[in-house]
Structure formats: C-alpha cells, structure tokens
Amino acid sequence: MTHITGRGAMRRTVVVTGGGTGIGRATARAFAAEGAEVLVVGRTGRNLAATAAGHPGVRTLTADLTEPGAAERVAAAAMESWGRIDVLVHNAAAVLPEPVGSLTRDAARRQVETNLLAPLFLTRAALGGLEAAGGTVVCVGTAATLGRRAFPGMSLYGATKVALDFLVRTWAVELAPRGIRAVGVAPGETDTGIGERMGWSAEEIARHQEQAAARTPSGRVGRPEDVAWWIVRLARPEAGYASGTVVAVDGAASVV
Ligand SMILES: NC(=O)c1ccc[n+]([C@@H]2O[C@H](COP(=O)([O-])OP(=O)(O)OC[C@H]3O[C@@H](n4cnc5c(N)ncnc54)[C@H](OP(=O)(O)O)[C@@H]3O)[C@@H](O)[C@H]2O)c1
C-alpha cells in the first residue's frame, strides 16, 4: 500500500463514487491521466476493475454506499493510503423513474439513500482527509433540475439532485473555515449506458437520445468525457476561487 507523507511533490488523491461506469469511470481515468492517485468505489467489482485496467493510478474498493459503515470504510481506506483526500467526487446515483402515482417506498428510499444520504455521510467521514489536503468536494447533480423546470416521472430523483445542489451551497460556506470547498457539476443528457442499466431496450435508448439531442442547442448528447473534463478542472487548485457554484455541462439544454 502506498503511504504518502508531506505535501511538496505529492500526487493528488481522489475518491470517485460510482467509478465503475459512465461519468465516474471517465472521471477516474481523467484524474489518473493527470497523475493523481484515484480510489474508485461502487458495488460491482468487475466494473471497478475494468475502470482500473491499464490505469495504474486507479485502485478499487467495492462498497454499497447506502450501507451503514460504508462511508467510514471508504474514508479509512483513503486515509490509510494517503493520509489526505484532495478531491471527493460524489457521482454514484440511483435513477428509478416512476410517476408519483406508482412510486414505491422502496424506490424512494433507494434514491434518497444513494443520491443524498450517501454523499452526506461520506463527506462527513472524509472531513479530516479533506481538511488535511485543503480539498474539494464535487457533487454530480443534473442539469434537468436547474432553474424552475419540472422533471415528470423523476420527481424523487430530481428532488435528491436539487437537494445535492443545496448541499454544495451550504458546505461551501460551512466548510470554508476548514479550507474545504464544494462545487457541483450538472450534466445534461450524457451517453453513459445508463439507459441499458435501467433496462431500456435499444430502441427506447435510441429514441430517448434522439429526442434529447433535438432539444439540446448543441445538437447532441454529451459524452462521459465532456463531464469528466469539468470535474477535473473544477477540482484543480487553480479553480480555488470557485466554491458553492454548480456548473451546467449540458450543451445549453437548461437555458432554453
Ligand atoms: N447519464 C446522464 O444522462 C446523466 C444526466 C444527468 C446527470 N447524471 C448524473 O451523473 C452521475 C453518473 O451518471 P452515469 O450516467 O454515469 O450513471 P451510471 O453509469 O449508472 O453510474 C452510476 C454509478 O453509481 C454506482 N452506484 C449506484 N448505487 C451505488 C451504491 N449504493 N453504492 C455505490 N455505488 C453505487 C453504480 O455502480 P454499481 O451499480 O456497481 O454500484 C454506477 O457505477 C449520476 O449522479 C447521475 O445522476 C447523469
């Protein structure tokens, strides 16, 4: 295990939740490409291993972040290896679309626990490491909830993402005295394979992406790397004056 002390020539240390697929995978690899040491967390070991394959800076930790003790285990793994956490990316999410009339309590609970409570308690567990680094918390929300727009079929998912933006604003103020900043990245429709994982058919995915591209002024959906680029940049020390802000990366879809 790599034990790192002193801050001089250190590589940056990054934890990415949901790093086994999609935006999380692209983010982990983008940080690693910049020379960072990255810990990716998720429930599916083989996906995490695929993210790490060929990227020596990426290590994996299998954990269900909704389980009691998981946040502490992730923070402890990072602290044991590095003694600090420069960047904590809350990217893991549960997306369970359902109109309110048929939303089950279980689906509601899973989304709240994964999208809201897991970032909350992982941030809490990581505070010592973030403070030691003068670190940055990055929350991945969604551009679909920016402004005063509705999100039919996604009321609970959207509510968790609105709440995540509120955590960003609040933590930016609350944690500033400890040298920690908080920022959000709000992706628009991004081609991550999430549709397949939600059980949609190939036709449904194609139709969905076509419609999303048509209502996006940039005329296309995003790639995971489009979003990862911003996460990496916002977490850099040079971006240090940005805190409490949420950046939309959505081809202008949220402003039409
Ligand atoms: N794709 C889009 O169009 C889009 C648009 C706006 C916002 N976003 C947001 O961007 C982020 C990434 O989305 P994505 O499209 O890349 O989704 P994705 O590929 O489904 O990634 C979500 C990741 O979270 C992990 N995860 C889920 N529940 C977990 C749990 N309880 N504990 C630990 N890990 C868990 C999943 O891995 P396991 O199942 O192996 O645990 C998965 O790797 C999400 O926050 C999403 O809300 C996406």
TrEMBL record:
Keywords: Oxidoreductase. GO terms for molecular function: oxidoreductase activity. Its EC number is 1.1.1.-. PROSITE patterns: ADH_SHORT. It holds the Pfam family adh_short_C2. Belongs to the short-chain dehydrogenases/reductases (SDR) family. This is SDR family NAD(P)-dependent oxidoreductase. It comes from Streptomyces cremeus. The lineage of its organism: Bacteria, Bacillati, Actinomycetota, Actinomycetes, Kitasatosporales.
